[in-house]
Amino acid sequence: MRCSTVCQAVASCMNIPNTTTRTPPYLLHKPVLFSNGALVLRSPNGFSCRCATTSVPPGEDVFSVVTSNTKSEVDYLGQSTKGDLNLNFGIDGQALQGPIEEVAKMEAQEAENLLQHLGIPVPYSARHSPRGIFCTRTLNLRSISVIGYDMDYTLMHYNVMAWEGRAYDYCMENLRSVGFPVDGLAFDPELVIRGLVIDKEKGNLVKADRFGYVKRAMHGTRMLSTREVSEIYGRELVDLRKESKWEFLNTLFSVSEAVAYMQMVDRLDEGVIGPDLCPLDYKGLYKAVGKALFRAHVEGQLKSEIMSKPELFVEPDPELPLALLDQKEAGKRLLLITNSDYHYTDKMMQHSFNRYLPNDMSWRDLFEMVIVSARKPEFFQMSHPMYEVVTGEGLMRPCFKARPGGLYSGGSAQMIESSLNVHGDEILYVGDHIYTDVSVSKVHLRWRTALICRELEDEYNALIRSQQHRATLIDLINQKEVLGDLFNQLRLALQRRTKGRPAQTLAATHMDDNELTESMQKLLVVMQRLDQKIGPMLDEDGELFNKRWGYLSRAGLWDKSHLMRQIEKYADIYTSRVSNFLHNTPFMYFRAQEQNLAHDSYTFGHLRRDN
């Protein structure tokens, strides 16, 4: 093959404009191995192409995949190399001329240029987007053999106003049927956000930081002032282990319950709920609301309505089936593990998947195994009887061993591991519930985990739009800090002077009494005026996401929310929707970013000043 022909072939394969006289900059110095064994080394000068050949024995593969049957090790970040490619034939290290640092730098630039030309985002730019996949613990997707998925709010996203609104309506109707005063109440999804915590003893809804300190609170539907929050929770931390007191809003399914409960707290405070309806305390009221919502789910009317018109409740995502198809074709064994029953699962998956799959594929063709009525979180913790679904009508028979390709009800994660002969960190489980899906599978089975949190897209965009507000706020806080430092030094100088001792420095000791007092007075006035400006701006921070609670992942200007701490602790990666995997390959290596410590900024600051 002549050099110009090689360049034409490469350009044709990659849809790159044809060129025979000059190799484009993004094709320089890149080896391309063709199926006939020809090895092309793109010239570093950009004007010609030097062709080399390597002999590949007939019937042999150029690459081989590292499997557990060969020899998988761990890399320098402790990740399994299972799923990586080895080069059986072709170029070796001697084909790379020069120090590896220089070669890698040039190759990385060329790779970035080529990605840009192909319209594919480079990995670091993909992370900095509303639909990025964010990594808290390094994850080599190549080493994952099995990917399990939850269904509700994971593989399919419901319109919150529609789905949770109807759940709320059924809940309120059930409350009305037993005598609760619910007239005049309406579903308000802006009243709560995921990650808040219900205080069942006080009838409050609170937002805590990563340490459990309450930063914002609402009693009924009334937001509490900063002083009230301090008086109520100044000596108390949110501890999710105290299940009798605290209820964490783990998922969007919690929205309807929380809205109903907080509205009914108002009615209880108004004295219009009688003792014949429930115990006249907030904990008893919570049980009554929970029971009404449970009836809405169990009696089946809600799901029947959704199944009859899924287009009103499910937000379509054409990219979603294609993302799973990429994973399946890359050798990943896909599982569906859902608490929903067979009929609901089949109907909703048909609606969400079948029309977007090629070649008349069905949603069932994507999954090696489907588990319905899984009863999570117990599914990950203990063994339950398993039944095989054997007919389209949902008829079942007892089953003691799962097999690939099967459709089952119940069972346990241990049965899945045994059937597929995979364990622990070979499995990635993807779900939306921080406890039922992510925490339990991580703690009990050491599965790798991914959390789906659709609200991330709105939060990311809100943070972008509020950049100027936050920059102004931080600038004002920094100004006050400088003024406060000076005020404190002058105050100390004045204190020492009244005790007949010299001040911190000779200049401070010799300051005139009037000058010292006037400087402190002026500084105090300026700081008080700054407080009047900073306070409301802090309250406004996050309003673009939610006017009551601010951002999902933050508690205050700089600190993380309790939800974000849970995500960091239990989810290896998190993202807004499963289809975001389509923008990353099934071979992606997700690398955790540097975690800054409180003293890092000071260390780096000294380094900058020294340089």
Explain how this protein is built.
It comes from Nicotiana attenuata. This protein is of the alpha/beta class and 611 residues long. Among the domains are: 93-128, no CATH class; 146-155 and 315-453, Rossmann fold (3-Layer(aba) Sandwich); 160-310, no CATH class; 465-551. It is 40% helix and 14% strand. The strands form six sheets. The protein has a ten-stranded mixed β-sheet with strand order 6-23-22-21-8-16-17-20-18-19, with helices on both faces. It has a five-stranded antiparallel β-sheet with strand order 13-12-11-10-14. A hairpin with a 4-residue loop joins strand 1 and strand 2. The chain is flat, with a radius of gyration of 30 Å. Mean pLDDT is 87; it is low at 1-53 and 604-611.
Summary keywords:
611 residues; alpha/beta; Rossmann fold; 5-stranded antiparallel sheet; disordered N terminus; HAD-SF_hydro_IG_5-nucl; hydrolase; metal ion binding
Mean pLDDT, as a whole number? 87
- Structural class determined from secondary elements: alpha/beta
Number of strands: 24
- Radius of gyration, whole Å: 30 Å
Beta-strand content bin: 5-15%
